Amino acid sequence: LGEVAVEAIVMAAGPAMAALGKAAPLGLRLVAAGDADELPAEPLDLALEPDDVASIIYTSGSTGRPRGATLTHGNLVANVRSICAYLELTEDDRVLAVLPFYYVYGKSVLNTAVAVGATVVVENRFQYPNVALDTLERERCTGFAGVPSTFAILVNRSNLAERALTDLRWVTQAGGGMSPALTRRLLEILPGKRVFVMYGATEASARLAYVPPDELPGCVGAIGRAIPDVELTVRRPDGAECAVDEAGELYARGPNIMRGYWNDPEETARALGPHGYRTGDLARRDGDGRLWLVGRLKDMLKVGGHRVAAREIEDAILEHADVHEAAVIGVADELLGDRLVAFVVPRTPGAVDAAGLGRFLKDRLPAYKIPSRIELRADLPKNPSGKILKQALRAEVTE
What residues pair up with 53 in beta bridges, in sequence order? Predict the structure, then answer.
């Protein structure tokens, strides 16, 4: 702050203000919000253009080094308009926010609510899921947004199934692929509610595709179709478009795609090309035009000459009724190429064992896709937005 022309900081009065006061540079004033009228400040006359930078939001870092996605005002406005339209948001909505606002999905929840004049109810106690559900009911919230781990907790470790939630109108899920088993269970628990399964990326200001609720029961596992004004294509390594049901890398083009990565021209050039933004996801398009994720390119493994998607194995593990969460990684193996290791969190301690899971998977997967090692855990490492940190798991097994 000493290098910036800042004369005062306005903040809510409280312990944080007292603590900051001790560390504030000499000459910098701390002013309680209620006393801000004392300051001789004049409103800044800012002429903002759609291409001006609005936010620099860092990627989750769940599969690599976080990078700052530079999003413009035009990017954010385009995405907000699309989301508000398909969610049919109005000023009467009351949204329970449990995701951090520095995370692109959480920021999108905030931006869309503000855009229509809706109410945002901030709930920072999701580590106690029933307390969060109490807030949702007490505040008569009409909307709720979460990532897969959010819904795994609600389905497996809360009394969600016992609640009427009469005011709840819609639920949105993004922030990673949710297993078909968990999606089906959520639909069973929330009959009559509009459940939106969505797909996106920080680089896309949040949203790229969604599954309309009335289609969801028949296509669990799909990410749906592109949101308005966004074009999604599935391409081969040479750039040609894939045929129906052929897997390739998913590309995105639209007014919501970032300008680039902050101070990282090399990664920007790698991510943004003639076909748009490279998502790093493998996908396929079915005969009805719906998109289905195969897995992250970085999560594609080679086992004995076979290409294996970690997501497929994780989804199979999560079909077990006593499994809460699962993550599969590959460990370098001289003979196989990659040796599969699964980390599994039971719904309750002792509910499942490694041998039993192995037998369960034999009925669902070919032998080369069954992990050679299944490790039971009380929990899995996650970042603040709830995404599983696979690089932390890899570091553990390779130490």
Answer: 72
Burial 72-109 (b: 16+ CB within 10 A, else e): bebbbbbbbbbbbeebebeeebbbbbbbeeebbbbbbb
Residue 394 token pair:
């890899």
Q: How far apart are CA 163 and CA 389, in angstroms?
A: 32
Residue 3: pLDDT above 80?
no
Over residues 102-122, the mean pLDDT reads: 97
CATH number for the 53-296 domain, one of 3.40.50.2000, 3.40.50.12780, 3.30.1360.70, 3.90.228.20? 3.40.50.12780
Going from N- to C-terminal start, the domains of the chain cover 1-45, 53-296, 304-398
Asked if residue 193 lies in contact with residue 169, where contact means CB atoms within 8 angstroms, the answer is yes
Average the pLDDT over 116-142 and give the result: 97
pTM for this entry: 0.85
**CATH code, residues 304-398:** 3.30.300.30
At residue 17 the predicted structure's pLDDT band, cuts being 50, 70 and 90, is: low
128: closest CA among 91, 158, 100, 108? 158
- Among 315, 324, 277, smallest CA distance to 293 is for 315
